[in-house]
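User: two proteins, same treatment. go.

Assistant:
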Amino acid sequence: MDSRRPTTRFTLIQKLVVSYAAMLFLTTSALIFSVMGIYSLNSTAKEIARTDLFNIDATNRLRDSMLSQERFAGKYVILDSPEFKQMFHQRQDEFLAILDQMGRRSNDGNFRAVVTSYDIYRKAVARAFEAGISKTIPAQREADQVIVQIDKLAAASQKQLNRKLANADRRETATVRLTLILSFSGFLLALSIAGLFIHNISRSIGKLKKGMHRIAEGDFEYNPQIPTGDEIGALADDFVRMGKKLKELERMSLDASPLTRLPGNIAIERILNKRLLSGEPFAVCYGDLDNFKAYNDHYGYIKASEVIKLTGKLIYETVRQVAGADAFVGHVGGDDFVMVVAAEQAAPVCEAVIARFDDFIREHYTVEDLAKGAIEGVDRYGVARTFPIMSISIAVVISQQNEYASAVEIAKTAADIKELLKGTPGSNYLVNRRKTNR
């Protein structure tokens, strides 16, 4: 019993697909994370450029504009020169335009505080302008408050920018780290897969190579012990079956006749027992060459052996042609042959074999012997006799279900039929004591 058990349900192709799919997933994930990281950093850079850097630059311009407004307002109320008032209003419009641009991007508490303090400052300056000439800079306290709020807005904008930059640095580091981890994992996975496959295939090929050497040495039962489940396992199964088949062929070869190469007694007994166990009707045809000993004595054993060899080939080809590939032909030994066919094919097989043998055997006699229709010789008792041209007698045993218990019984019945046939001249066959002559 084969002790091997399947270790996997995947073929080599399936394992390769699954393994490289995992590697592709890791590589693709690394690429996706890298692209997402770049996209995120790009979005952060755009946001910083659109909002934070603008706000920082705008707060600087607000501060410069506020200081300019203080100077022009002071010069106007002290010198009462209209051009300073005009310059003040230009700076004021500039300041309001900057606030408007900033308000479109953000409107947090610090920004609103700047707007509120500046509104107070504008009203205070307007009152100072209405009051006329003064010896001091108008709305000094309100101007200082605006500057304070602008500085707070600038500090908040700078803090927010620093926070975004730090966050961007963290995302960049995380993206690079994760991309490297996934890429390296995919690389290691690819190396592991390649190494594992090379190792397993190399080891399996080594086992198969060892098995080939063992079989060449005659160990047909050697099992390479390769786990089943993939193509190499299937190849190992085929290898084991090949060994069993070779062992069977070796046994058949040892049992086969060295002259005709037809299966011998062991194979004949096996096929008869197999047919008996099946319970199906079948026919066993025992063929025997008449006057073969006299032919051997007259023409010599080389010529006689050639006749036996060619007769075996003739019977084999004829039976296969008439009865098909399921028919069996064996060589008991000497001039005895066995044909196992379906019951209904017995008569056609016997008639075809007899017809072809009678034509064939005449080619192996001299013209003189054929003209006489016989050869001179001595029988087994040393008595000189005249022996007719060689013929073939076929004893046919039809086995119905449970009619015979063993191959021995069939052989005994065939022997009895052959005794009846021996007294009849010429080639003929007899089916269970019913004879048909040619």
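Protein 2:
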Amino acid sequence: MPMFENFTKTVIKTSGAEIVTVKGGDGPPLLLMHGNPFNHLSWHKIAPRLAKEFTVVCTDLRGYGDSSKPPGGGDHSNYSFRAMAQDQIEVMETLGFTKFYAAGHDRGARVLHRMCLDHPTKVLKAGFMDMLPQHYLLNNVTRQWGKFSWHWFFMVQDYPTPETMMGADPEFFIRRKLSKTDQGTSFFGPEALQDYIRCIRNPEVIHAMCEDYRATFGIDLDMDTADYDAGKRVTTPSLILWGAKGGVGRNHNAAEVWNRYATNIVRTATVPSGHYLQEECPDETYEALSSFFRP
């Protein structure tokens, strides 16, 4: 693993999946969770630097990368953020960490949000990267957000429509999805980008990604609505970090939105990037995470 030198790679079996895991460094445990359509390689520009201060753990979420792909269908609960969060809790417990720091980008931040609600004593500090809670987004759909985040409404369609269309040209789909600015995919590490393309060529990965989005519109939103209506909020000390040039930064007041869902926001900050913070602005993203999690 040239991008994760001195990290060890294992596959950890949880109660619901087999999770690809890389671990490196020494210090307080820090779990990093990627977004869509990535895998653990999305952290390759900053994980080795963070490993100088922390024991860094990066995983492939269930359904993504080379982690296992549980059956979908039904209520899509196998791809709920609750199920994904449970995987990550069990991975960390297997590694000997009953409490830890955690950061998530995009879908990984949604897993972290659910983790903080379901397991509030496990996560010591939480870093939410370029994500607004889906409870807010799906109850406040705008024309601008719908156009920018078109893949949400495409991938949530019933099987097999999106799977068939994505599978017809997976590389076109992923490159198009990732080209949110005039830079296209130029700032992605070439090896990492090729691995993302390798993974999405697997029909099982495509199906799992769609199941992830189907769960978001159904069982995840139901859970979030019940918690929100009951007054349940994230109480974990939190960092809200977003890209100033991305959809969150340009289309929303992220700090104001998050104040409705978290009661212990320690810091809000931006980096001069679009949506893909750790790929486009690794130095600034590293500094923001390191300074927040540093004991």
